[in-house]
């Protein structure tokens, strides 16, 4: 009789423990819950990623990682965020950032 009562309780406890263990490695546990409205200087950013339902997160966001490994969540529709992404892509592809102006002219030695 006691086994009939304890067995379902034991199975329930194991199921709960397994369910909680799944959440530890779940990428959704590292999702942004809100976005920042602050402008981020490009010189502080080393990379970015996109989060959304495809990554298991409810909120659509751009996650910038700073050179000090701080993660900052931003709205993907913000024009400043879109410009920062474009500039980061240009830097990655070896192109100069257009907001930096013209490159300095080097002095030539006369022979």
Describe the model.
This protein has 111 residues and is α+β, with helices and mostly antiparallel strands. The protein has a domain at 27-94: Beta Barrel (OB fold (Dihydrolipoamide Acetyltransferase, E2P)). 33% of the residues lie in helices and 15% in strands. It has helices spanning 2-24, 79-92, and strands spanning 45-51, 61-66, 71-74. The chain has a three-stranded antiparallel β-sheet, covered by helices on one side. The radius of gyration is 24 Å and the shape is elongated.
Number of strands: 3
Secondary-structure element pattern, one letter each: HEEEH
> Mean of residue pLDDT?
78
User: What is the strand arrangement across the widest sheet?
Assistant: 1-2-3
Assess the beta-strand content as a share of residues: 15-25%
Whole-Å distance between the termini?
104 Å
Helix content: 25-40%
The rounded Rg comes to: 24 Å
- Specify the number of helices: 2
Q: What name is given to the CATH topology of one domain?
A: OB fold (Dihydrolipoamide Acetyltransferase, E2P)
| CATH class label of one domain | Mainly Beta
Compact summary:
This protein is of the alpha+beta class and 111 residues long.
Summarize this structure as a short list of keywords or feature phrases.
15% strand, single chain, OB fold (Dihydrolipoamide Acetyltransferase, E2P), 3-stranded antiparallel beta sheet, alpha+beta, 111 residues
